[in-house]
């Protein structure tokens, strides 16, 4: 998949692209609904002998236009999103930097400059897609703005158990710790990328060494607690138990949040390694223990629960 960053119309004019079927949207998470949009464009491209493409925006419009941009969190950062879209077998990914200037484009100007000039012959988007200044363009007005240059397919609302599949719903599930509910909306377990860093080595001292994860604070993080997880490290997936929170048994002040994973049947030096942490199921809330022995006993139970969880999955 070729990735093109489109900062202005000139970027598009210089490409001289073949006819395209384009899926357009923000696509945070590339969830089941997003996949429907993208794969519909891919199928249309295949039927017509065109190239398939996805157009997305970065950063989130809320991070540019919202009142609290620093609070905007993501299911997938751009790097994650790119890999997921590439895995769907798309030819081009167009990344449009979302700026206040770009947000000020009138709907017709956006269609002229970013769709028609891109040689789009068929555009696919979700029913709630909007574009142009104040989001005043939508899937009804696009029929007029297209000037007959391209066809349009609207993907209607997709639901699971009468709940609309949306990035907002998925974020809420993650933030409340219901990670086991995420796959039916996302199409996979939620995961974040990061690097293993040195911690305070307390886990190793009590017989349960942990990999401490440093990761981008723009990710949506699960609620504090203990989780069954998998980690992709050293070229393979390893089962584990993850604690996310403030380590209340050792830390009185809630000034730093830790993401620490005890990997089961794994003993390698992985400091500095780039890893993927995949969240499977919540075991319990974070808890402050009266003493180290009580903590060790509970961690042993958590580890056994994780082992049994994966045995049932196999």
UniProtKB/TrEMBL annotation:
Q: Which domain of life is it from?
A: Bacteria
Q: Which family, according to the similarity comment?
A: Belongs to the ribF family.
Q: Name one GO molecular function term.
A: ATP binding
Write down what this protein is called.
Answer: Riboflavin biosynthesis protein
Q: In which pathway does it act?
A: Cofactor biosynthesis; FMN biosynthesis; FMN from riboflavin (ATP route): step 1/1; Cofactor biosynthesis; FAD biosynthesis; FAD from FMN: step 1/1
* UniProt KW keywords: ATP-binding, FAD, Flavoprotein, FMN, Kinase, Multifunctional enzyme, Nucleotide-binding, Nucleotidyltransferase, Transferase
The scientific name of the source species is Perspicuibacillus lycopersici
Q: Which InterPro entries does this UniProt record tie to the protein?
A: Cyt_trans-like, FAD_synthase, Riboflavin_kinase, Riboflavin_kinase_bac, Riboflavin_kinase_bac/euk, Riboflavin_kinase_dom_sf, Rossmann-like_a/b/a_fold
Keyword Iron (UniProt): no
């Amino acid at each position: 998949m070729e990735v093109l960053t489109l900062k202005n119309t000139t970027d598009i004019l210089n490409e001289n692209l073949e006819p395209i079927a384009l899926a357009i949207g923000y696509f945070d998470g590339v969830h089941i609904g997003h996949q429907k949009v993208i794969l519909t464009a891919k199928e249309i491209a295949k039927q017509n002998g065109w190239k398939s493409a996805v157009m997305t925006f970065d950063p989130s419009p809320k991070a540019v236009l919202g009142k609290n941009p620093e609070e905007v969190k993501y299911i997938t950062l751009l790097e994650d999103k790119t890999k997921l879209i590439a895995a769907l077998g798309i030819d081009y990914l167009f990344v449009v930097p979302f700026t206040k200037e770009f947000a000020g484009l009138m709907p017709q100007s956006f269609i002229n400059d970013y769709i028609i000039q891109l040689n789009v012959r068929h555009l696919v988007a979700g029913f709630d897609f909007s574009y142009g200044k104040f989001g005043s363009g939508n899937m009804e007005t696009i029929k007029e703005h297209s000037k007959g240059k391209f066809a349009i397919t609207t993907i209607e609302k997709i639901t699971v158990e009468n709940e609309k599949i949306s990035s907002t719903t998925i974020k809420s599930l993650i933030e409340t710790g219901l990670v086991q509910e995420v796959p039916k909306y996302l199409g996979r377990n939620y995961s974040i990328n990061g690097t293993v860093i040195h911690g305070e080595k307390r886990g190793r001292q009590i017989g349960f060494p942990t990999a401490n994860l440093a990761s981008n604070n723009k990710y949506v993080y699960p609620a504090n607690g203990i989780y069954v997880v998998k980690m992709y490290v050293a070229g393979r997936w390893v089962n584990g138990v993850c604690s996310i929170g403030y380590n209340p048994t050792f830390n009185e002040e809630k000034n730093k949040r830790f993401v620490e994973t005890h990997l089961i049947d794994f003993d390698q030096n992985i400091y500095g390694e780039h890893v993927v942490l995949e969240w499977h199921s919540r075991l319990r809330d974070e808890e402050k223990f009266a003493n180290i022995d009580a903590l060790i006993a509970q961690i042993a139970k958590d580890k056994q629960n994780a082992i049994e969880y994966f045995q049932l999955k196999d």
